[in-house]
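> tool_call: predict_assembly(chains=two)
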Amino acid sequence: DAKTTQPPSMDCAEGRAANLPCNHSTISGNEYVYWYRQIHSQGPQYIIHGLKNNETNEMASLIITEDRKSSTLILPHATLRDTAVYYCIVRGGGTSYGKLTFGQGTILTVHP
Amino acid sequence: DTGVSQDPRHKITKRGQNVTFRCDPISEHNRLYWYRQTLGQGPEFLTYFQNEAQLEKSRLLSDRFSAERPKGSFSTLEIQRTEQGDSAMYLCASTGQGGEKLFFGSGTQLSVL
């Protein structure tokens, strides 16, 4: 699976949009971009995933560049409860699709 | 949907002792995964099951580690002769056939003294 690069930490004011970048310049054509987050003392939580097109769900939006070498996770109105470690993961298809390679992620701190 | 359940939440043991953790996946999820997470790092894949069959094991899983899923429902992870380096959070996750997202439990925090 392709490697990802994320900033180690970011800050965001409560109520503002949080934009978390991720570089995955070696991504292959059949690899998906996934985002998970992990709140302190809990297991990771799925947020969103995409292949080529931008995606939106009740939690977030995922913007993938046209060349697919980078993406941005957008939390439109961050709250204090969004403070967590956010992991960007590139995952291939096949039977091992639950075998994820987590990096160190981005620590997002939302402050009042 | 009661989520993925792990037991115990915390385990403190002395070096050399054996420990066993249990994971109850979301009912009817046929795929179950074990991960390990050390402080400041992301989770690392250990092994996974499809139903009762263990299909893949990471090189991280030494001979002292064994995992089972005897009836394709709950799973156990046993560590024999624990070492201080085994101290970590052990996470379990599950997904259904064709599932695109993993559902993680809250983990078992192991401390080996």
